[in-house]
Design goal:
The complex is a heterodimer of chains A (685) and B (317). Helices cover 33% and strands 22% of the residues of chain A. The longest helix of chain A has 18 residues. Chain B has 2 domains: 58 residues, no CATH class; 222 residues, MetI-like (MetI-like fold). Chain B starts with a helix and ends in a 7-residue tail after the last helix. Chain B contains 13 helices and no strands. The chains are: A alpha/beta (685), B mainly alpha (317).
Chain lengths: 685, 317
Amino acid sequence: MTAALAEPRREAAVSPVILSVEDLHVHFATSRGVVRAVEGLSYQVRRGEVLAVVGESGCGKSVSALAIMRLLARPAGRVAGGRIVFDGRDLLTLSEDAMRAVRGREIGMVFQEPMTSLNPVLPIGLQIEEPLRIHLGMNPDQARARAVELLQLVGITDPQRRLDQYPHHFSGGMRQRVMIAIGLACNPKLLIADEPTTALDVTIQAQILELMRDLARRLDVALIIITHNLGIVARYADRVNVMYAARVAEQGTADDIFLNPCHPYTMGLMRSVPRLDRPRGERLETIEGLPPNLLAPPAGCRFAPRCQFKYEACEKEPSLAECGAGHRSACHRAHEFATGRLAPAAIEPLAARAAMAADTAAPLLNVRHLKKFFAVARSGGMFARTIVEVRAVNDISFSIQKGETLGLVGESGCGKTTVGRLILRLETPTGGSIEFDGRDIAEARGDELRRNRRRIQAIFQDPYSSLNPRMTVGQIIAEPLTVYRLAPSARAAKDRVAELLSQVGLFPYMAERYPHEMSGGQRQRVGIARALAMEPSFIVCDEPVSALDVSIQGQIINLLEDLQRRLGLTYLFIAHDLAVVRYISTRVVVMYLGRIMEVADRDTLYGAPLHPYTKALLDAAPVPDPLAERARAPRMLKGEIPSPLSPPTGCVFHTRCPLADDDCRRVVPELREAGSGHQVACIKV
Amino acid sequence: MLAYLANRLLLMIPTLLGVAVLIFFMLRVVPGDIVEVKLRGDGGNPSQATVEAERKRLGLDKPIYAQFGDWMVGLAKLDFGKSMWTERPVTEEIGLRLELSLQVALMATVIAILISIPMGTLSALLQNTWIDYFIRIFTIAGLAMPSFWLGMLTIVSLLYFFNWLPPLTYTPIYKDPWNNLAQLFWPALAVGYRYSAIVARMMRSSIIEVLNEDYIRTARAKGVYERLVVVRHAMRNAMLPVITVIGLEFAFLIGGLVVTEQVFNLNGIGRLFVQAVGRNDFTLIQAMVMLTAVVFILSNLVVDLLYAVFDPRIRYR
């Protein structure tokens, strides 16, 4: 089966090389010295081939793509050496104008942020037609006709009308389609996509990536996808470059990299992501430590300080050497890995998590018919204002037992964050009750609210903006201690801060630091320490790991689990990443447009989902295993998430549901029991 | 759009009412009135009866609320009353001078835009080159130098180098355009330079900021000519904060050019304002304050409408 499925991939290997990067070096001049952002990068891409470049932030993957386009931020960034041979010419030797003629004409590029990558003040049509008129010399009518064609190609309906609209009329996914249309406008030979779906929801991500891959195949375009998501790599890539600290750690076919990795960093990456396709292990394996500072990288192998297999030879720098046909690894022990003489310990499957089993008596938190409606003024003006009600959270009920972790998943706009904010009472509910430890806190105010604040704490998503940049870490953590008079003296507060810091795996001396002096993972640990300072029994974790790199994400998840076990905490874990939720949760709630679609314990939800939306979500999320990915045909959800301003009637999901019929347009499905502890809101299952 | 405009214009009424109440009572809280200035100003010592008679004639003897009521009724009929000093209708006093001040302000704005937009853009594009340094020094000089000083220099150099002086009396542009421009160009230039310095600095920082945006990178990645990247993609976005500054400055120019008008011997709004305040000419002061308020509100409205022209995300309904 594998051989048959691998067939189309071999075909790509004979088509001509379109891009060849040879020994590329990129330097950035900063006030603290020269950062060597890319060092000695070499790779080739063939027509019709999909190359994925994977790595964590700061590894040089985006910078190397910008170097190909010669769009490095000037004057700080410059190519310090190497060749970039594209279609027989070295791009680095071209004149500025000749290079401009290559951009957009022969190499297209799609960027990460669809919300900011299109010019907000120019109509979409102009932005698509621009390269056509510049590069192909089309007249306005021809360019217009081609633009219509391109919008159809990327699946935007009613193209004539939409060409006259501006970016703000389009959703994120639609804007990314427009970006792809621009990238493909002049039939380029190479398309570079820098994290094209990172800012998008899972179901939209699947649509965009399928579209890009299909178009690349059909138009015989070489595609470079830069990503940190190993699932995407497994599903779409023919060949893979794994980068670490400005260098290539390993390169080869997707099968080489996933099935027979020969570099400890690749192995570590793969083992530290929570996975949808494997039973969870006792603990997430993590790559301990942090990537090196590129201002002063260590001598020898750059991964050695974090590597569990290092030995004396690692003090010398490894070269990128073959360890199989077309499979190269920059590790002294690559051959030992290749031949199977050396391998990391097998992941222990989870024995029994029953020790922490939730006690089934009274729930710690019991949410009943919770509602939150926001009034939004639709059109301005003093006298002619229409108020529209956005039902962010619409009649939802669930409960959380003491000591359990309830996962809350859904796409953007589904109301999951609002639920968290309601429980924290950062918002006041429009209706319903929130019973915490036997008392309704939905209406609590004054002292009662303050008491609850102590017991219910929060960890937020963005460790970069949720810590006050003008306060030291010590002040941030000590603040709740003083506000709630939890420490009798300054001395005691200081001791408590030190204790909290060590509890979250930081060192007491770090209390003197400011947030900007710490890495993302360390900042998130500070956020956790701050929440723990109040000695809460319940913590709302709102996307606590989604801003972090894979290897750091694992460390934080493990920390949260350890703390739960040690301190008997209860979590509400809000996230959009299904695999992370699966890993950490005991039960899971799936939300869509303000309503609950399905509730079940983890294994039931992921093993035997009932609701078509849950199924679609699980289908859309790629898993880091090329064989599994090839074996399944993704059933994609069509369409966009409807605007919460005008949600569909009946079942809110019916516009995208494969099972929907007329009944679904009329009836709002009740959340009903479908097995013990398994509830589903669908009339068709 | 029309509804929005009507709405904004209607909203002017409460704002102007507030201004009217404030200025009316503030003037009367301060001791002294025009009669004192008129009769006792030059050391004269009129009898109490004469003072009272003059007060009565000007209506200043009525209770304050009655005076306010009279003024309000007048305003509602767009009758601003007569100047208490010259006894001529306020509209007449202001009319001709407003024409002059408005023209200087408009010309200064045009000059400022013509200088500042290219200079600010150039300065941003050639950041940290000698051209940028030169422009930055030029603009700092414009901010540091009072425009009346620049005006005096202009007059002195015109006299010294060309042995020529601009005409001293004002002729409306529709009567004698050449004479009119020969007189008003120089004050407009002096004011416009300072004005351009502010706008150019705003333009520079705005362009620098916009050039770092993602969509500029997208435009470059499409192979758009650098000139087009700047003109089409960057400048339109960069104009928004610049327009705000231009609008505020413009409103200030009407009535704010007291010293410059003095230097160039222009009979403008600024000078009239100072005169009116010196003479405690209540009706005239009130009318001019109302005028200034209207100018500020209208220029703000124009700025808001221009915003909508430049940024399609802003649509007024």
